[in-house]
Design brief:
Layout (H helix, E strand, L loop, with lengths): L1 E2 L16 E2 L21 E2 L3 H7 L5 H17 L4 E2 L7 H12 L4 H9 L2 H5 L3 H8 L1 H11 L10 H17 L1 H16 L6 H21 L3 H15 L1 H17 L1 H17 L4 E7 L2 H10 L11 E7 L2 H14 L1 E9 L12 E6 L5 E8 H9 L16 H19 L3 H11 L4 E5 L5 E5 L4 H8 L1 H5 L1 E6 L2 E3 L11 E5 L16 H13 L2 H18 L8 H11 L4 H9 L5 H14 L20 E3 L7 E3 L11 E6 L3 E6 L3 H9 L4 E6 L7 E10 L4 H11 L3 E9 L5 E10 L2 H12 L4 E6 L4
Length: 758
Amino acid sequence: MNIQADNLPSPTVSDSAEANISPQKKRRNPAPSNSTAASPAPIVASITDLTNRLSEYLSPTDLKLVKEAYRFSDEMHLGQVRKSGEPYISHPIAVAEICAEWKLDVQAIMAALLHDVMEDQDVKKEELIERFGAPVAALVDGLSKLEKIEFQSHIEAQAENFRKMLLAMARDVRVILVKLADRLHNMRTLGVMSPEKQRRIASETMEVYVPIAHRLGLNNIYRELQDLSFAHIYPMRYRTLAKAIKAARGNRREVVNKIMAAVKTTLQEAGLEAQVDGREKTLYGIYCKMRDKQLSFSQVLDIYGFRIVVDNFKNSYFALGTLHALYKPMPGKFKDYIAIPKSNGYQSLHTTLIGPYGTPVEFQIRTTEMHRVAESGVAAHWLYKNEAGTLTDLQQRTHAWLQSLLDIQKQTGDSAEFLEHVKVDLFPDSVYVFTPKSKIFALPRGATALDFAYNIHTDIGDQAIATRINNEPVPLRTELKNGDIIEIITSPNSRPTPNWLTYVRTGKARSAIRHYLRTINLNESTELGKQLLAQALVSLHLNPELPESLVDKLLNESSANTLEELHTDIGIGKRMAALVARHILDLVENDSPSIPFQHMGDEKINKPDPVMIYGSEGVSVQLSPCCLPIPGDDIVGQLKRDQGLIVHTADCKNAKRMQVKEPDRWIDVTWGDDINRRFDCRISVLVNNERGALARIAAEIGEADANISHVNMEDGESKDMTKIHFTIQIDDRVHLAKIIRNVKHLNGVSKIRREYSN
């Protein structure tokens, strides 16, 4: 169809794609201008290339359905152009062509052609069901809910959109395949946008769509989106690096050709039929290596690599042995992803060899089927069942991950929390560990034994008390390494604590712990929330006793069912007391005639009373482990989501850094009277390296009526000195001062001070 760009009204940016221009959001009303000015040659949008590609694997009946979808989409988008001047219909066609490269079915292709008609042109789902059937309508509906993610706007809006996208993907993986194709075409045509919009869209692509593509094994898309995002986020770095690689390509051509010839000859002599291709690392991959390892471009030697594709599984290992006979392998640079595939289904043998002139050269060895999966990931097996009616390993892993999204959704309180958990699980690096019965699990790098426990089952995680890794007892916070054999020890009396959140890595573990903490000790959290809200109201000169009419209005607008639930949300850090108080003030000021409510006069209150801390409140109030506050210290309180109130010393460096980032989450706190418990405190003692020193210090601490809960030693400032670190249990600062004074006078003690971990 021919569309003249000059015969259109002034464009506005479409909500569905930043690179699109929509004159109107009305259906069937293009409203062309009556201008008679000379126009440039019309731009033609055609589906010839698409139908030619589809005819390779779709039936004539299916092709007819695709053409019907195209005609409808073309009619709906009539009069709409992209900012480049192309007719808008060229975008859905391009998206469909990308989907056709993956050989997606007729329903997915139709959804690609129709993916913007609901959002841009107000087409109803019922009309799509009538015209194209329920499955196509469901796909388009899922895609239409994926509103633009505004990373520089409100975090809650961003999180909600992200949640919608992933839940739509969990219901039907084709939704995300079409969405990734849509995003890929928009990134390819991003150059017409302003630099600011280029950076914003590229940033959201890098943060959301790149890791999703990687998680689904769509490596071609993953690499292209990564490089395109890099080019728009750091254009100068991209151009500089591209220029350097172009120059290096010429300098290293001789070496690359020599290696290629030697490898082909060696494989042929060994009787192996193999496809050998040179492979250049992506610009972004090279940039990350330079950045992370602080290397110059000249120091990044392995820019080039080779890929060897063989016909069967056995020959992949045969080819590996043949290469190792040709060039010497680098120690520690071999990875077998065939025996232990990556979580996204990727399989290959990776080895780095010392090539001619001492240059490191990376080789990837895989079968034809592995290569297909490596390039297309879940798109290579997008159908739910193969011919035998069973799920492939890749499909099982993908479905397990998609199901975990639904599980996390059930346990999380809001979209922001869901976003946090899922983005953690999109972390690309994995470690592979085993159960005692040799069942393998893939977990994100940095995952702990506790993450492993929750990965097996939520109940196992909740009741975990200890673990054995490789038959050695270790703490639950121990980070896992490749090949670890892990045994979890449980007890029915064990329960999660807020401290667990500081060292779990996976979204599943984090959401399960938070879900548990939300459901226990509600009385504590409710009471704390009530106290915090009262404090915030008093600071605004409002009476903390709220009349019933005001409570009803507040609950109606806050989505909380009861005032108690609102207090609980504040107590666990889900809501900010200051924000709730300001909202109450707005309600009072806007509806003062209808709400009988009295302000407290300025003469009655100048500053709110601080929250009283006794150290025995339970999980709703925690003493921060970084500074371990004790009675007598000046303290401040941090309201942390789902962890309640975290108490720091006023001079804590961590606290000061966090206060700058989130000043609204900090409140005044003070120690209560009649505290009847003891508190942990860390001290370090620098002592002469002589016999009996530890015993003398320990005896003195005991004489001062303090208990030693932990001790460790390290070399001091010189070989004649030893530094001893104690964790002791004391009453308050006065008690600590007495201990320090007594220990300081011991023979051999050079220095003693209180210790902090920040």
